[in-house]
Amino acid sequence: MHLNCHSYHSLRYGTIPIKDLVRLGVENNAKVMALTDINTVTGIYSFVQECNKAGIKPIVGMEFRCNNNLKYIGLAKNKDGISKMNRFLTGHNFDGTPLPDQAPDFQDTIIIYTLKNLPENLRENEYIGIRPEELVKLFHSEWKEKMHKMVILAPVTFRKLKADPEKNIKAYDEYGLHKVLRAVDSNTLLSKLAENDYCAISEKMFPAEVLLEMYKDYPLLIENTKKIIDQCKYELEKKKRNKQHYKANKEEDLELLTALAFEGLEIKYKGSEKAKARAEKELKVIDELGFSGYFLITWDIVQYSRSQRFLHIGRGSGANSIVSYCLGITDICPLELDLYFERFLNLNRKVPPDFDIDWSWKERDIILEYIFNKYGRDHVAFCGTNVEFKYRSIFREVGKVFGLPKEELDILAKSPMKEDMKNSVAELVVKYGMMMEKYPNQRSMHACGILISEEPITNCSVLEMPPKGFPIVHFDMHTAEDIGFDKFDILSQRGIGHIDDSVKLIRKNRGIEVDIRDTSISKNEASCNEFLALGKTIGCFYIESPAMRGLLRRLKCDNYKVLVAASSIIRPGVAQSGMMKEYIFRHNHPDKFEYFHEVFEQELGETYGIMVYQEDVIKIALHFGGLAAADGDILRRAMSGKGRSLDALQKVKDNYFESCAKKGHSFELSQEVYRQIESFAGYSFCKAHSASYAVESYQSLYLKVHYPIEFMVAVINNQGGFYRTEVYVHEARMSGGTIHNPCVNKSEFETALYGKDIYLGFMHLQGLEAKTANRIQKEREENGDFISLENFINRIPIGLEGLQILIFIGAFRFTGKRKNELLVIARLLLVNFKPENRGWVLLQEPVKEYKLPVLERSVFEDVFDEIELLGFPVSCSPFEVLQTKYRGDVMAKDLLKNHKKQVRMLAYLISRKHVPTKMGAMYFGTWIDADGEFFDTAHFTDSLAKYPFLGGGCYLLLGNVEVDYHFPTITVVKMAKMPFIPDPRYSNDKSHQYRTQEQLREDVSMTNRKPYPQEHEINL
């Protein structure tokens, strides 16, 4: 009888999670429930599953609303009914038109109107819903004659909770929560909500018998409601929903996949029998699981990418497959790294395969357009995702509807339980905020998950069109997997942009064609390995952070396999477990440890007997425990939290101990190995993933080593990586590039390169509009260089403010005039300038020349202009504008010789990483010295209390050098920020003379997990 239930997927309206809603139905003896969330089908699949478990008949549908006005409720008689409603609402979502007052002539659907919005004529499948409080109206004659079209309508929106004085919960607190959600949605004060903004207080669930008692005098309504219930039957089909075949059928798919795999096999393995056997084994499993089409669609996308000369990186567990390697989806040889196919696919694994493919962020949308056009926009969509109310933002949102001022909102967001905030309003804010935690707030697009459906995708979901321009379904990736979709992960990253743009710049600047896709030229290349061992990796994907550069130096990493291991052990879980420290020790002292068991030496000798990768779990389960590789993968998935069946885990565990006993292992030994597997599996990292990262790291490092200026310009143009632009500009200078400020005749929107001359792009100028920057470049390309300031003003629509930015940065230095002179000329010209006169004329009237007084200008004025407009100095280094000439007693290059010594250094702050410890906050700092060399520091809580960081700039450091496996770190005892010279531009205004240097930035990264690493883990 409950035909209009809302869950919390009725965003900012409903208050009940799906499981709780079904549980509520059980408590109220409901035999039938209909989920009709507002303009969405997000929850219908989990609702049907929960109802089936609870023995309740599920009905699915939607409540159609427009601007919070209820139009009608749709109930699906079958799967075609929900499909038609999905298509109807999708059409309105896409074109932005309001919903009509009367529903279309739906087939396979029941439509229910309310008394307030009744159309003149009702179709056969349309009814009038009568709420309990509206029964008194039925005595009126106008309604009596329509009673044959009336049904029971008892909406459910909130739960009537049990009062609990100890927890300060009142019976109708969830009704209050509903009102709070409505106020958040309306962006208004709770006190200003109108009555039609929120639901009636009757919208709680009544027990089935109570509901029937209410309507006992209207048997026709009960009969009509039962008739509707009998007509509605929705069953969740267990089937594959992806596009099933790339060709016409399964057989043709396998034939093509086999042909492509063996074609690649011949190219990459030259007839190797081992490789052929592996490929045949994989093809058999792929065919049995029905994934040939999935592989071929992925191959097709990659082929299109290659045809456009785009660079892609295939990573993730898909790199465990030799077939994906032969198809060119991935660049990792699974035989070289002993990668198990079972980690990716096996007959016991019911979850779909998962290729993660990266493109440059500049090219990803072109790939997406291809997918949508090739496979049909009716069949392709992004996975959705629910953006939940987040812990801190909740209190801001709720605090606003209670009218709290910003100051109190800030305090609540940071410390909601603070004692001095415990007044009645603040307590309400905290109470409702805690109730809302984990509630969905809005729907959004999954970052990368694409669904390609066999049937029109609206058979499964309503679609929305976000600003990005690609449609999204209403459910998330987990629901997609549950109902039979295998998603394609189409990702983007700036690292590929660095590589791709470098190759283009090298071609343009040097006329050299670098085939960076051929990984054999970069992987394990000798000079790359030298740079790796020294941690000279700024700008390189995944290996440029201070922590990674420190790890590379500790390991003296000089080959591909060690880099693969480093890419894994840097991950938080491995480092936190102490495995990173143990790996570093064993790598540097291979003769000072013993293997736990001979199997660990045989199978994990590459990583000194330490389980570094997820694949290692499978290896130990296989070779020590005697389990099948597929069972080892079940073990890994279950322990990492990805396995959903405890029964399957218990079965594999039992098999493990039985098999160990058969192999002659003692129970105690078997138990200890199982404990190690168990403790490791939760934080392990996929080896294929690490290997993919390592290959991309080598590609970027190869370009950095051999074409450093082009590479750094590409990094700058892709808006950097771990660090801010200034760091990459510094690195470009250290690589031999000459840095120039933006120039209207040389610069482009992005940074431009001419030989070794680097002209910073207009995009870096703070305050200059992007459209002006692009217009300058376009006008120059079409009509030639600008010949004077007057000529520029005549050709480019620009106001005085934009012109001043260009003058102050020196963009008109080609004129030979000083900045102050140009400013005066600009003002004189723009006073009388008429925009309608802009453009080329046959005879340009000469501008009147003004004799201006010579105004002397300090060279340092330019430096402070640069800091103000770019955020960093270009004309000189930050050290040259310090008041002191002192540069420290020791330089970074000498730190290795000063182990255990106290040193004093002058350095420019690059970045610092916040690390919470049991004793309080500590930081790791990264700096450059006056020679431009990088070094690292550690700052503990006691030192920071007296000598804190005070923003970007230069500091004098006093500290003790600790060399930990070839990597020096200074534990700072004292530090002081050093003042710049007074800003000469404000020589008459003392209050402004030191403000500009406050604009110098630093990169600060936070660690929000448990204390990591602790002092003993970093040997400090």
TrEMBL record:
Region (Disordered): 987-1020
SMART domains named among the record's database cross-references: POLIIIAc (SM00481)
Pfam families registered for this protein in UniProt: DNA_pol3_alpha, DNA_pol3_finger, HHH_6, PHP
Catalytic activity: DNA(n) + a 2'-deoxyribonucleoside 5'-triphosphate = DNA(n+1) + diphosphate
GO molecular function terms listed in the Swiss-Prot or TrEMBL record: 3'-5' exonuclease activity; DNA-directed DNA polymerase activity
Signal peptide: none
GO annotation, biological process: DNA replication
Key words of the record: Coiled coil, DNA replication, DNA-directed DNA polymerase, Nucleotidyltransferase, Transferase
EC number(s) reported in the record: 2.7.7.7
Coiled-coil region: 222-282
EC main group: transferase
Domain spans labelled Polymerase/histidinol phosphatase N-terminal: 1-68
Name of the protein in its database record: DNA-directed DNA polymerase
Species of provenance: Flavobacterium macacae
Taxonomic placement: Bacteria, Pseudomonadati, Bacteroidota, Flavobacteriia, Flavobacteriales
